[in-house]
């Protein structure tokens, strides 16, 4: 805001100039986002409103009990970067509130802070001092040197300075509150990250515990988690969802913890009764997982439905197609893929060509076509060297995932699934 | 002319160890800081007398006043002479009210400012300064 001078030196002219400075200060505090810049401008406005030659503005840091200077004009080289306050000085300034203190004041009004820092007041030729106190907190101080007119500060000048100091004090306090809020938000973020790590580690420990029960399938849960993660990422899921499905994969067999070890480790094909016992594990897994408040809500569902088939011939409920949650369809494929590609007590792992052929044969029966396509695409992209991480190779071995033989089969399967030829065939069948 | 990184340039010219800096139409924070930088640059380069020409200046706000106080301080600390030239009547009144005119000479125009400084230089030499 600009005030045009009217009559030379009239009180009205002075009042208007001061009022304009106050209005500019309010606007500056509201509009400027850069705190340091805001404070520099605030100091300009205080000095410019009354023609004050020297000025400095400091922010109080409660942790260090220091007044740290953030803006200064005309103070020369003598102004220190900060001033340490004793607890008595802090209390004294707090008690004063926003109040101008001049060095010409009578002795009883001279406070210890001025007396203790006499050298700074002398060297920097500071004539007036205002502690910035907002809502009972000391937030900073304003130091001012002489007026360009050579006159002392009048009572009206002090009123104007106090009014501006209140604005500045509130701006400092808001900034400090915002910084504190940011600090706490960062602490919370770090805490959340740590909790995520703990959660993931706990889940992995559970997965290891589950797999320990089955001496033939050690690492199975972790691999299912990783394959599920690969499929979900290929399907374009968000990172949070990908992390969630990885956990779903780790825990999909948690229900096996209540199945007898002899059944799980039977080195022969289990009988119907044993099979019935084993087939309880999805429901039991759901019961274990559902009371827990997981970051990814579908984790219990993946445990419950990972043995469902899209043709309705799975268990425990015989759900069909879209009745099966997608998370369970993904874990189902990951689970089956790991079962086919690892040695079991009663059979050796299949060759990769056979696995791809199994996918072809069972898409639309056991497996959901969209999940098979995503899995094949992810595998093909790794074979072609389009991915940074070689997860399949790490888990299966380089020779097993041999590009020349497998890539054409995968391409063909993807084309058939994308064209709908395979699903039409499945539908007709 | 001193071309600054952003915004409109600050025009200045040097006459021996004297420099004339031209203020823009509105002396606010942005333009004021450019002028202050240019004045300080001239003083650091050894300029002994500085004229700020306010021919184009219609308005000066509180930030502009503070910045000009900074220029006055810089000039005083280097012992350089400072003259404000070609101010409109409102700006003169504002400067008088706030005491700037106690620290700088005012001149009707740039020519008068140059003459004032020449006279001062002659007087100083005669006085053996």
List keywords for this structure.
heterodimer; A: 429 residues; alpha+beta; 6-stranded antiparallel beta sheet; 18 helices; 6 strands; elongated; B: 129 residues; alpha/beta; 5-stranded mixed beta sheet; two-stranded parallel sheet; 4 helices; disordered N terminus
Model description:
The complex is a heterodimer of chains A (429) and B (129). The termini of chain A are far apart. Mean pLDDT of chain A is 87; it is low at 1-8. Chain A is α+β, with helices and mostly antiparallel strands and 429 residues long. Helices cover 57% and strands 8% of the residues of chain A. Chain A contains 18 helices and six strands. Chain A has a six-stranded antiparallel sheet. Chain A has helices at residues 11-31, 35-50, 87-96, 112-116, 118-123, 155-212, 220-234, 239-251, 261-264, 272-278, 281-289, 299-305, 326-341, 352-362, 369-383, 391-396, 403-419, 421-428; strands at residues 55-61, 66-73, 82-84, 101-102, 128-134, 137-144. Chain B is of the alpha/beta class. Chain B has a five-stranded mixed sheet with strand order 1-2-4-6-7. In chain B, strand 6, helix 3 (89-98) and strand 7 form a beta-alpha-beta unit. In chain B, helix 1 runs parallel beside helix 2. Chain B is globular, with a radius of gyration of 14 Å. The A-B interface holds A 1-9, 13-14, 17, 20-21, 24, 41, 43-45, 47-54, 73-74, 76, 147-151 and B 26, 29, 59-67, 69-70, 72-73, 77, 89-94, 96-100, 102-103.
Secondary structure blueprint with pairings:
The complex is a heterodimer of chains A (429) and B (129).
Chain A (H helix, E strand, L loop, with lengths): L10 H21 L3 H16 L4 E7 L4 E8 L8 E3 L2 H10 L4 E2 L9 H5 L1 H6 L4 E7 L2 E8 L10 H58 L7 H15 L4 H13 L9 H4 L7 H7 L2 H9 L9 H7 L20 H16 L10 H11 L6 H15 L7 H6 L6 H17 L1 H8 L1
Antiparallel strand pairs in A: 1-2, 1-6, 2-3, 4-5, 5-6
Helix pairs in contact in A: 1-2, 1-6, 2-6, 7-8, 7-13, 7-15, 8-12, 11-12, 12-13, 14-17, 15-17
Chain B lengths: L10 E5 L2 E5 L3 E2 L1 H16 L4 E5 L5 E2 L1 H17 L2 E5 L3 H10 L6 E3 L2 H17 L3
Parallel strand pairs in B: 2-4, 3-5, 4-6, 6-7
Antiparallel strand pairs in B: 1-2
């Amino acid at each position: 805001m600009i005030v045009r001078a009217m009559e030379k030196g009239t009180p009205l002219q002075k009042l208007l100039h001061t009022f304009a400075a106050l209005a500019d200060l309010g606007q500056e505090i509201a509009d400027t986002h850069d705190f340091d810049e805001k404070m520099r401008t605030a100091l300009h406005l205080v000095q410019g409103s009354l023609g004050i030659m020297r000025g400095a503005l400091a922010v109080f840091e409660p942790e260090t009990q220091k007044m740290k200077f953030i803006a200064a004009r005309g103070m020369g080289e003598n102004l220190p970067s900060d001033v340490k306050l004793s607890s008595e000085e802090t209390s004294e300034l707090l008690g004063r509130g926003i109040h101008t203190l001049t060095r010409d004041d009578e002795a009883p009004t001279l406070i210890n802070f001025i007396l203790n820092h006499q050298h700074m007041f002398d060297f920097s030729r500071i004539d007036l001092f205002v502690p910035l106190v907002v809502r009972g907190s000391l937030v900073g101080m304003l130091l001012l040197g002489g007026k360009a007119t050579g006159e002392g500060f009048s009572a009206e000048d002090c009123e104007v300075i106090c009014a501006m100091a209140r604005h500045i004090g509130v701006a400092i306090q808001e900034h400090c509150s915002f910084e504190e809020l940011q600090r706490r938000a960062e602490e919370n973020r770090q805490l959340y990250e740590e909790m995520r790590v703990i959660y993931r580690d706990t889940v992995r420990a559970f997965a290891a515990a589950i797999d320990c029960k089955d001496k033939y399938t050690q690492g199975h849960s972790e691999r299912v988690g990783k394959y599920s993660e690969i499929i979900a990422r290929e399907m374009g899921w968000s990172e949070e969802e990908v992390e969630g499905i990885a956990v779903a994969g780790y825990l999909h067999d948690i229900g096996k913890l209540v199945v007898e070890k002899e059944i799980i480790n039977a080195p022969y094909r289990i009988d119907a009764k044993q099979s019935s016992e084993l087939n309880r594990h999805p429901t039991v897994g759901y019961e274990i997982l559902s009371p827990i408040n997981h970051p990814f809500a579908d984790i219990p569902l993946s445990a419950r439905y990972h043995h469902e088939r899209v043709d309705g011939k799975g268990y425990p409920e015989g759900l069909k197609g879209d009745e099966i949650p997608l998370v369970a369809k993904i874990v189902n494929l990951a689970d089956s893929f790991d079962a086919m590609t690892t040695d079991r007590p009663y059979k050796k792992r299949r060759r990769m060509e056979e696995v791809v052929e199994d996918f072809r044969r069972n898409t639309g029966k056991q497996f959901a076509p969209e999940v098979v396509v995503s899995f094949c695409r992810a595998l093909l992209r790794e074979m072609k060297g389009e991915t940074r991480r070689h997860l399949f190779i790490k888990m299966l071995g380089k020779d097993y995932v041999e590009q020349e033989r497998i890539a054409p089969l995968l391409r063909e399967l993807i084309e058939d699934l994308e064209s709908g030829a395979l699903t039409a065939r499945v539908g007709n069948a | 002319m001193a071309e600054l990184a952003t915004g409109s340039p600050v025009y200045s010219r040097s006459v021996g160890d004297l420099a004339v800096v031209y203020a823009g139409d509105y002396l606010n924070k942005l333009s004021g800081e450019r002028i202050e930088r240019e004045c300080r640059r001239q003083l650091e380069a050894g300029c002994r007398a500085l004229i700020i020409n306010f021919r184009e200046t219609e308005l000066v706000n509180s930030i502009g006043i503070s910045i000009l106080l900074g220029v006055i301080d810089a000039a005083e600390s280097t012992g350089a002479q400072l003259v404000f030239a070609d101010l409109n009547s409102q700006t003169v009144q504002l400067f008088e009210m706030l005491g700037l005119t106690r620290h700088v000479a005012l001149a009707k125009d740039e020519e008068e400012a140059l003459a004032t400084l020449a006279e001062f230089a002659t007087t100083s030499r005669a006085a053996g300064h």
